[in-house]
Amino acid sequence: xxxxxxxxxxxxxxxxxxxxxxxxxxxxxxxxxxxxxxxxxxxxxxxxxxxxxxxxxxxxxxxxxxxxxxxxxxxxxxxxxxxxxxxxxxxxxxxxxxxxxxxxxxxxxxxxxxxxxxxxxxxxxxxxxxxxxxxxxxxxxxxxxxxxxxxxxxxxxxxxxxxxxxxxxxxxxxxxxxxxxxxxxxxxxxxxxxxxxxxxxxxxxxxxxxxxxxxxxxxxxxxxxxxxxxxxxxxxxxxxxxxxxxxxxxxxxxxxxxxxxxxx
Length: 264
Known about the structure:
Blueprint: H1 2-36, H2 43-53, H3 55-82, H4 89-127, H5 130-136, H6 141-180, H7 184-191, H8 197-223, H9 228-263
Helix pairs in contact: 2-6, 3-4, 3-6, 4-6, 4-7, 4-8, 4-9, 6-7, 6-8, 8-9
């Protein structure tokens, strides 16, 4: 009887924490959209955060995109050679990178690098009471810290994804050029031959959603960090894990919606 009561208590406790946590997260997102269109806009801080997210991630994005392009081309060539269809290799690489790999790889890298950085930074500010000090100084910490970072990730990650896609295509071109001595212009023409405006628009929408997710999750976990310095590490870790989890879910949903749009 006691075990049954304990299990019932634990289950109700977990359920209560789950729904209260979701409610808190929804209120956090609603507050973001409420503060987004209110003055002051802190444009200088938005630009500074774009620099932090964009330029400081450029080297890692470049290396990863370049390697993805080369490796995917090497892995795809033997299968196409079996059917004598190596001329379709640029088109295949273009479809794979622009529709899926470019946005997804960029989002996952930024979730690990940017999401953890935001979570740790805001978490340390919370546990050292810097956020409380901003409130006392008549500065809106949510507007200055959260809104600027989420806007920066939403703007910058689509640009990084586009850059990653072109770098990946260039890496693929180098592999194709080594085997077939083709020109860069003809490679890019073949790669974009099967890509239409809808494909590019969907990829841009994907990266905007990914950028917003990375920013809002990192800010939420960092802004609500507790338990001192231990909570800072916990906030950074949870920001990365949750952001990646949501990105994969969003990928599935957006792809399904895109298929419905193409069908109609």
